[in-house]
């Protein structure tokens, strides 16, 4: 619990820092700030970040987390250009599909399948490269299926 609180504090600090240091040319954008979906459906969350054609892919770090009131869960982790599936929270296991081709074009495309209501919350992606650092966030709201 305390570990998670520390991580949440760290992320909040990053948000504050990146909002202040807005002079940098490195950005992480979201294609949608809010997603609405139904339980058991799939959704693709997308972020875009600044790319530099002449840079190598070894210095790229990405961490995408789901932040809810009481918990922080790792959705997606890339370390030195390589996906680290071991970091992923068990709740997302087997439900996340990333698009590696899109990533090379500066797009983080994550398909989340078999949505659950507890997937709802704030999704935050931090991208760190040797030419800049930034954070992008979006919200997902998963509602229960309406039985008829
Ligand atoms: C959701 O994604 C899974 C795996 O990618 C696929 O098999 C399934 O047909 C998709 N379902 C819907 C409703 O799109
Ligand atoms: C981010 O959004 C800004 C404003 O819409 C746009 O000018 C910029 O090109 C976008 N950058 C990326 C990498 O998506
Ligand atoms: C989630 O969607 C439902 C149904 O549209 C809506 O009633 C509810 O206010 C939404 N919640 C949030 C946090 O946006």
Which short descriptors sum up this protein?
148 residues, alpha+beta, 6-stranded mixed sheet, globular, binds 2-acetamido-2-deoxy-beta-D-glucopyranose
Describe the protein's architecture and organization.
By secondary structure, the protein is of the alpha+beta class. It has a single domain (2-143), classed as Immunoglobulin-like (Sandwich). Helix content is 16%, strand content 43%. It contains two helices and ten strands. The protein has helices at 2-20, 100-104; strands spanning 28-30, 34-38, 43-49, 60-67, 72-79, 82-83, 96-98, 107-112, 121-129, 132-143. It has a six-stranded mixed sheet with strand order 2-10-9-4-5-6. The longest helix is centred in the N-terminal third of the chain and has 19 residues, at 2-20. It starts with a helix and ends in a 5-residue tail after the last strand. The mean pLDDT is 88. Residues 27, 29, 48-50, 106 line the site of one 2-acetamido-2-deoxy-beta-D-glucopyranose. One 2-acetamido-2-deoxy-beta-D-glucopyranose binds next to strand 3.
